[in-house]
Design goal:
Elements: E1 5-6, H1 10-13, E2 30-31, E3 34-37, H2 41-52, E4 57-60, H3 69-72, E5 76-77, H4 85-92, H5 94-117, E6 125-133, H6 138-151, E7 157-159, H7 161-168, E8 174-183, H8 186-199, E9 203-205, E10 210-216, E11 219-224, E12 227-231, E13 233-239, E14 253-262, H9 267-273, E15 278-282, E16 289-292, E17 298-306, H10 313-331, E18 340-350, E19 357-361, E20 364-371, H11 377-393, H12 398-402, H13 407-410
Parallel strand pairs: 2-12, 3-4, 3-13, 4-9, 6-15, 13-20
Antiparallel strand pairs: 1-18, 5-8, 6-8, 7-8, 10-11, 11-12, 14-17, 14-18, 15-16, 16-17, 19-20
Helix pairs in contact: 2-8, 2-11, 4-5, 5-11
Bound molecules: flavin-adenine dinucleotide.
Length: about 425
């Protein structure tokens, strides 16, 4: 299995290696209702939601919880999917596109409310997003995107070039400003959710790789550390199709993406950037994005590229980080006075339409999957938890079709 990231991301770089919760290895047979493979933010959200509803769950992570892609995340909690509304409507029709947007808006709101109501300290802050176009014709396309969103009842405000400059310090053609988004420390959010799940009876095991899964008429048996976990259903929350699910790998494209975190920027210099308290992303594909952290660092990201071999990853990280830095240095000359603190990269899985796969697959009985979020894993992971709880309880709604493995056919019928 490839490493999900290289170099310590900001969230771990300044934390003592032993800090954070530690969970035991599985060391005996176990019976639960649902076993969850993967202790990242998706597994944590599933564990919390299922345990909160009275389902007996166990989370198994091959390594340490929250230290895979989740720790690499820049944790922009966005209601806007990576894919434009116009593109989604073209693929699946305006009604389905509108529903995806509504669900992702609700998931962001519910995720934030859950973190708040559980009092999970994860540097959570409410933020608007600014989705900007640098020039034409992308500015015209972006205005059209806003018109289509509004027609579908999706809110957003147009920033013309002057307003974009005032809000972000960027010279561009214009932008869509969206309220109701947020940012957080993803590692703390994930481990906080897991802690809350354990208070509801969830069992969590680290260094417990699920090596084999066998389904039969009565349920599922997982082989872990030489022991057996027996359950009714298994949730696969490993981020992407791991080698055990090789036949599903064709449904995903694996990308590497790059992040640079600056040192803390003093208030006087921060003013020179002209970037307010908003989360930025651009209309380029792959897109670039930026946000402030709670301690006045800038997080700069983007530069996604197809996965490189393990041997090439360190060099690709240097090139990727330089590319991201140069892009933002052109927008923010003040960056020349700032040092980089850490740079890292992580692996993520995308799908052809930018939406995750959530639900069962006909070739894997009693399995429920939640995989392939692209750059939206924080909020879609939370949405996945809700949809999977419905699947588990036998509740079926039209929402399930939007994220099914067979959606291309099902939604165009
Ligand atoms: C650099 C970067 C920046 C990102 N920025 C954002 C962002 O700003 N906003 C956003 O919403 N999303 C962002 N994402 C995406 C987001 O981080 C991921 O989609 C999300 O963290 C996926 O969480 P997960 O729990 O599904 O997977 P992971 O966090 O990768 O967790 C999967 C876990 O499964 C475990 N595992 C794998 N195989 C097994 C096995 N056989 N047995 C037991 N355990 C196993 C692994 O050890 C791992 O801990 C970013 C991603 C990257 C890489």
């Amino acid at each position: 299995m490839p490493g999900l990231r290289i170099a310590d991301p900001l969230w771990l770089a300044h934390r003592a290696k032993r800090e954070g919760p530690r969970y035991p290895e599985l060391a005996s047979d176990l019976r639960v209702d649902v076993a969850i493979v993967g202790g990242g933010v998706t597994g944590a959200a599933v564990a919390w939601m299922f345990a909160h509803s009275g389902v007996r769950v166990a989370v198994l992570d091959a390594a340490r919880v929250g230290r895979g892609s989740t720790a690499a995340s820049t944790a922009l909690l966005m209601q806007e999917p990576d894919i434009d509304f116009a593109e989604l409507a073209r693929r699946y029709g305006p009604k389905n596109a509108r529903r995806v947007w509504r669900l992702s808006t609700a998931a962001t709101r519910d995720f934030v409310r859950t973190l708040e109501s559980l009092d999970i300290r994860c540097d959570l802050e409410h933020r608007d997003s600014v989705y900007y176009a640098l020039g034409e014709p992308s500015g015209r396309r972006l205005r059209d995107e806003l018109r289509r969103r509004r027609r579908a009842g999706i809110p957003g405000r147009w920033l013309d070039a002057a307003a974009l400059r005032r809000a972000t310090g960027i010279d561009g053609a214009g932008a869509i400003r969206t309220s109701g988004n947020a940012q957080a420390d993803p590692y703390l959010a994930c481990t906080g959710l897991l802690r809350a799940a354990t208070r509801r009876g969830a069992r969590i095991f680290e260094r417990s790789s699920v090596d084999r899964i066998d389904a039969d008429a009565g349920g599922v048996t997982l082989a872990v550390n030489g022991f057996a976990i027996r359950c009714a259903r298994v949730v696969i929350a490993t981020g992407y199709a791991t080698p055990s699910f090789e036949p599903l790998a064709v449904a995903f494209r694996m990308l590497q993406t790059y992040v640079v975190a600056t040192q803390r920027i003093p208030a006087r210099l921060r003013r020179d950037f002209g970037l307010g308290n908003v989360m930025l992303w651009d209309t380029g594909r792959p897109y670039h994005y930026a946000r402030w952290t709670i301690d006045n660092r800038l997080l700069l990201g983007g530069g996604d590229r197809p996965r490189v071999s393990e041997r090439q990853r360190a060099k690709a990280l240097r090139d990727g980080a330089v590319g991201v830095w140069q892009y933002f240095e052109r927008r923010y000359p003040a960056l020349q006075q700032v040092d980089i603190d850490v740079a890292w990269e992580g692996l993520f899985a995308t799908t052809p339409d930018g939406l995750p796969y959530v639900g069962p697959h006909p070739d894997y009985p009693k399995h429920l999957f939640a995989l392939g979020y692209g750059g939206n894993g924080m909020t879609f992971g939370f949405l996945a938890a809700r949809l999977l709880l419905e699947w588990y309880r036998g509740k079926r709604t039209s929402d399930h079709r939007l994220f099914g493995f067979d959606r291309t056919v099902a939604l165009n019928r």
